[in-house]
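User: Some background: our group keeps a shared notebook of sequences we're curious about, and every so often someone picks one and asks for a predicted structure to add to the entry. Today it's my turn. The entry only has the sequence so far, pasted here. Could you supply the structure so I can complete it?
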Amino acid sequence: MEILLEDRQVLVVNKPAGLATMGLPAGKTTLLTALKDFIKRRDGKPGNVYLGIVSRLDVPVSGAVLVAKTSKSAARLTEQFRQRSVEKTYWAVVEDGPKVREGRLRHWLRHDPRFRRVHVTHRGDPDAQEASLSVLRLATHSGLVLLEINLESGRKHQIRAQLAAEGMAIVGDRKYGSRRSFRAGIALHARRLAFLHPRDDRRITVTAPLPIAWKSLGFSENSVDGVSPG
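Assistant: Of course. Here's the predicted structure to add to the notebook entry:
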């Protein structure tokens, strides 16, 4: 379990791709059940371990997940997400270069529960929700592009659907049009979280290291503006 930050109130972990954050039937391993088992063993706790998942990631997505260790902290952190004061930064590798180097994407998304995906629709759709994010191009390598994405809203599959709508399918994301396979889920990673600590309102920023599998795409921790060093 890669713990990025821990104290008595909060816990931030680097979730691997392929692991559900929570919500599976009893007996199925999730990030939440694994964390509870880990803390129970590590700290020798005789009773139940309280943990509250504050931020979720899709199963094929890796990166930073924020967890509250007390119910009071969970309430305060959840309110920050509700007010959109938490800064959420993602890295993604896409198959086709973006039409613009950087900019803001705004779409209307509609959830389709039959196929467990979302569709880009129009503003007048009564079932649609507005979704917006900003995109910055960081590096290129062998026809792939590394993007940095900052979320302005928090819709289901938002990044995956919005990038695909602009012709920038995330590597490995077959559900949204990717033509390439990727052995570690999809090439979408929750890179940074910035929030106020629930105890004293200190600004906390946590960065999640990239999965090793990203090196097979030619990108690493040192991928910056220009050509990736691999």
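Suggested note for the entry: The first helix runs from residue 31 to 43. The first strand starts at residue 3 and ends at 6.
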